[in-house]
Write a structure and sequence with these properties.
Blueprint lengths: L2 H22 L3 H9 L13 H4 L10 H9 L16 H19 L4 H7 L3 E3 L5 H6 L1 H4 L4 H10 L6 E6 L4 H21 L8 E4 L5 H9 L3 E7 L10 E7 L11 E7 L6 H18 L9
Parallel strand pairs: 1-3, 2-3, 2-4
Antiparallel strand pairs: 4-5, 5-6
Helix pairs in contact: 1-5, 10-12
The chain binds cobalamin (B12).
Length: 295
């Protein structure tokens, strides 16, 4: 469904509500919606309000408290009720709102101004634009020739840990978590006496690009902070993919260790940075990563 169609549906629903209100002289339709969402009455409820997000739509249930507990325990669309065999309008609108957020964060570009503000330098993979990023994951796993040159020019060689950031599949994951993940991560490594390389940003990156970077810089461990494929209701989630002495030809997926779900409602970024430092120390100690680290 494209944005135009979503907007048409939203407008139609709002018009219908307005009509009912005007014709009957009361606000019963709106009251019903906000009541079912257990929200304070508002003429046009904001779909981003917590009370709308956490609505219990099952009316007259025997056990509202249990439903509330279930609802609180997950972002999944449970206990939203129904209207006959269909979802309620409010549930559908929330679904569409979450869907748009997820789509937006995949398609959004990380701006050059943002990168400049962070003080990082930026390199590109072999991808030229977002469409190509989504259709050619293989090119997102390789650095462009320019990128290789810039990295060799600007980065410290042979670091113990090389930190790399990338937009991946969620621009918001990077921009929303950045301030709370990179500084504590650097502090954590520094206070453990670990020699860190020069952190930088890879535009249009895929996970495997970390292997080429590690090989190029001869790093002991590469920590890649990258935007995850967004889910419905969570579009700011970041992952950390960590690997010991990676090489393009030799590293396989099971050599990586991953922490996912890094965002304010999952593993908060500050907490994640402490976990990453611990894992990296273990990697350096055992001289391995991924499945072998757990054996
Ligand atoms: C897409 C996805 C997959 C796809 C990857 C296909 C692809 N080419 O993208 C498929 C279905 C193959 C997959 C398989 C697995 N996945 Co998966 N996957 C995801 C998902 C939904 C998104 C990942 C993402 O956005 N990556 C970022 C983009 C930019 O990366 P990319 O370069 O395009 O793709 C790479 C990564 O996705 C990576 N990857 C994907 N899953 C996993 C899991 C592990 C352990 C590792 C090391 C790497 C890895 O492999 C891709 C190729 O390099 C996450 C959930 C999440 N919220 O992150 C779970 C997630 C990362 N997967 C998970 C798991 C457990 C697995 C499997 C081990 C499941 C299994 N038992 O077989 C396998 C391992 C596959 C592997 N690569 O080694 C867990 C990891 C938990 C953890 N902390 O260890 C997650 C967090 C889901 C979860 N909540 O349980 N996965």
């Amino acid at each position: 469904m494209d944005n135009q169609q979503i907007e048409t549906i939203v407008q139609a629903v709002l018009n219908e509500i307005r009509e009912k209100t005007d014709n009957t002289g009361d606000n019963s339709a709106l009251t019903e919606i906000t009541k079912s969402a257990q929200c304070e009455y508002k003429k046009f409820p904001d779909l981003a309000d917590d009370c709308i997000k956490n609505q219990i739509g099952v009316i007259n249930s025997d056990n509202q408290d249990t439903l509330k507990e279930i609802r609180k325990s997950t972002l999944a669309r449970v206990a939203v009720g129904r209207s006959g065999p269909r979802p309620r309008t409010l549930t559908l609108l929330r679904f569409l709102a979450d869907h748009s957020l997820s789509r937006d964060t995949v398609f959004k570009e990380v701006s050059e101004e943002w990168v400049e503000k962070t003080g990082l330098f930026m390199v590109h993979t072999q991808i030229e634009n977002k469409d190509q990023y989504l259709t050619r994951p293989d090119l997102g796993r390789k650095l462009s020739d320019d990128a290789k040159k810039i990295i060799l020019e600007k980065c410290k060689k042979n670091p113990t840990v090389q930190i790399v950031l990338s937009d991946g599949l969620s621009t918001d994951a990077l921009t929303m978590n950045f301030d709370e993940i990179l500084p504590p991560l650097i502090n954590g490594f520094e206070s453990s006496g670990i020699n860190i390389g020069t952190p930088f940003f890879v535009k249009y990156g895929r996970v495997k690009v970390e292997d080429e970077i590690g090989e190029l810089l001869e790093a002991d461990v590469v920590v890649l902070l990258i935007g995850e494929r967004p889910g419905l209701g969570q579009s700011e989630s970041m992952s950390s993919y960590m690997v010991y002495r990676p090489t393009v030809a030799g590293t396989v997926e099971s050599d990586r260790t991953v922490i996912s779900n890094i965002h304010k409602l999952g593993t908060p970024p500050v907490e994640a940075s402490a976990v990453i430092v611990d894992i990296v120390k273990k990697m350096l100690n055992k001289k391995t990563s991924g499945i072998k680290l757990t054996q």
